[in-house]
Amino acid sequence: MPWTLQLAWAASSLLAAGSRAAEVTPFESPRIVVLVSADAEWRAVRALLPRETVSPTPFGEWFLRTVDSSGGRQPVVFFHGGWGKIAAAGSTQYAIDRWKPERLVNLGTCGGFQGATAKGDVVLADKTVVYDIVELMGDSSEAIADYTTDLGPLRISGDLPKDVRRGTLASADRDLSPADLERLRKSYGAIAGDWESGAIAWVAHRNRVPLLILRGVSDVVGASGSEAYGNLAAFEEGTRLVMKHLLDDLPAWLSRWDASGATKPVP
Fold first, then answer.
1. Inter-CA distances, 48 with 23, 26, 69, 248, Å
2. pLDDT, tens digit, for every residue of 18-38?
3. Measured CA distances, 62 to 65, 67, 76 (Å)
4. Which helix (H) or strand (E) holds 150?
């Protein structure tokens, strides 16, 4: 090909690439990123939204979906961050650095405390505490306090649905032990437990990004344990029901959530 034609072809390619970049720029800088942690939770999301085109990251898949809310139709990234505190912390920082969202949402499951929640309830977290820190050289309570995150005055307009419980989520790299329930209630005011919300909240708070955590109760834990313990199928079925409920209600939550006061300054 003559060099003049090569230049013309290169120029047209750059213009086309620039046009494509202009088209995807809004999608690469969405206002909202939805973090989904556990593998079972993400499988449920993918089954509910099978037509979405996913892309890889060092953590998990992501896709873009337009969600209707009172602010109009807006692009929302759904991102599989991974299970446990390590993946949750790393993937939250990755999402903030990559997409620079104005707001973060964490949708997922939790084990509810018997007497405080019922299966199918949604926990709206106003505080998270990471409780599986054991300090033998000093005071464990001080270390746990360092990783406790107050999510601030979550402004949700209107009355909360009857199945929504505001409260503290207790996070650890473990399922809830019946022997720990009373301590978690008395020491931290916890009403449910999960594996990731404490890490997600801590990272979001350090970055001053407003965060909404909605965790559906997939199973209830009491003195005799949980229906899901030793029964993975029960957990997976509970997860499917929870994630459908949360995805169905996401537009309403986004419409009602005022993120202007959802974080406090980090000292």
1. 27, 25, 19, 10
2. 333 333 344 556 889 999 999
3. 10, 15, 10
4. strand 149-150
DSSP 125: E
The residue among 174, 215, 213, 182 whose CA lies nearest residue 113 is 182
Structure tokens at 109: 């499951």
In total, the chain counts a number of residues equal to 267
Q: What is the distance between the alpha carbons of residues 103 and 98, in angstroms, rounded to a whole number? A: 13
* 3-class DSSP assignment, residue 128: strand
Q: What is the DSSP letter of 15?
A: H
- What's the longest Cα–Cα distance across the chain? 80
Q: List Cα–Cα distances, 259 to 32, 129, 209, in angstroms.
A: 11, 21, 9
- Position 195 scores a pLDDT of 97
pLDDT tens digits, one per residue of 62-119: 999 999 876 678 899 999 999 999 999 999 999 999 999 999 999 999 999 999 999 9
Q: What is the pLDDT of residues 200-228, one digit of tens each?
A: 999 999 999 999 999 999 999 999 989 88
Output the CA torsion sign for 234, 128, 82, 212: positive
- The residue among 215, 29, 243, 213 whose CA lies nearest residue 127 is 213
**DSSP 3-state assignment of 211?**
strand
What average pLDDT is seen over the chain?
86
Amino acid residing at 48: L
